[in-house]
Amino acid sequence: MSHYTLKDIARPSGGFAMLAVDQREAMRLMFAAAGASLPVADSVLTDFKVNAAKILSPWASAILVDQQFCYRQIVEQKAVAKNCATIVAADAFIPGNGIPVDSVIIDQHVDPQAVKRDGAKALKLLVLWRSDEDPQQRLEMVKTFNQRCHAEGLLSIIEPVVRPPRRGDSFNREQAIIDAAKELGDCGADLYKVEMPLFGKGSQQALLSASQRLHDCINMPWVILSSGVDEKLFPRAVRTAMEAGASGFLAGRAVWSSVVGLPDSELMFRDVCAPKLQRLGEIVDEMMAKR
């Protein structure tokens, strides 16, 4: 049985320039906020995701897709470029307390064997990290997920995202990102996808030292995501995180959020998003060359 390696989702430089289109109800909310006619139909999300895959995947080393809205269509339409690997989100989002993702479980409907047959190279799991929830449960879930991936020779990507505690204690996001990395940074996954410290704001020196602190806690290659980071600051965030030891990015919003709800999405992807993604890929290669 073939076992994929990180090279299979990386650029030739060894860095990662990966595109995420696996946002679900959060993307529906973005369309609503952009003035799309309500309710925002599933087909609106599917079309957006499939078009993104068709037009942007040539510029990405991998693309992260979700089964709920686009996986089947992307496979059937052969929407992903040959040079781009497919990663499938294997997390089921449970809404609650007025938010689209209040808790997460492993999605049993995502069959690792079947997605590998379809050509996918990796699975991704979102892990919500709250200081007042049981770390043992999180670790068990991640271990189970890693086993599911590795039993089929797929790569395991975990995405710890920090949330305020359930019981209104004070919340220090920056410390929580570090604490989550200390807990999950050596859990046996292949790649760690993490929130950018300081939302990518502040001086480069502050960002660099925050990213170095994070790097010291993660015992596997890691990449940053772009949620919460101003897209204008994201290229600098990638550069600075990589200077601290990151290996690239797996990001959606910094690439495509500015065109959500605009007409002619294919044209917008080509004119607005592709150059952003291309530039980010160049930054990744440039930073890898310095190693």
TrEMBL record:
Matches recorded under Pfam families: DeoC
Catalytic reaction equation(s): 6-deoxy-6-sulfo-D-fructose 1-phosphate = (2S)-3-sulfolactaldehyde + dihydroxyacetone phosphate
A biological process term (GO) from this entry: 6-sulfoquinovose(1-) catabolic process
Keyword terms of this UniProt record: Carbohydrate metabolism, Lyase, Schiff base
Bilayer-crossing regions: none
Enzyme Commission (EC) number: 4.1.2.57
Active site per the UniProt annotation: K193 (schiff-base intermediate with substrate)
GO MF, one example: 6-deoxy-6-sulfofructose-1-phosphate aldolase activity
Top-level taxon: Bacteria
Enzyme's top EC category: lyase
Assembly and binders: Homotetramer.
Family per similarity comment: Belongs to the aldolase LacD family.
PANTHER family registered for this protein in UniProt: SULFOFRUCTOSEPHOSPHATE ALDOLASE
Function: Cleaves 6-deoxy-6-sulfo-D-fructose 1-phosphate (SFP) to form dihydroxyacetone phosphate (DHAP) and 3-sulfolactaldehyde (SLA).
Name of the protein in question: Sulfofructosephosphate aldolase
Source species of the chain: Atlantibacter subterraneus
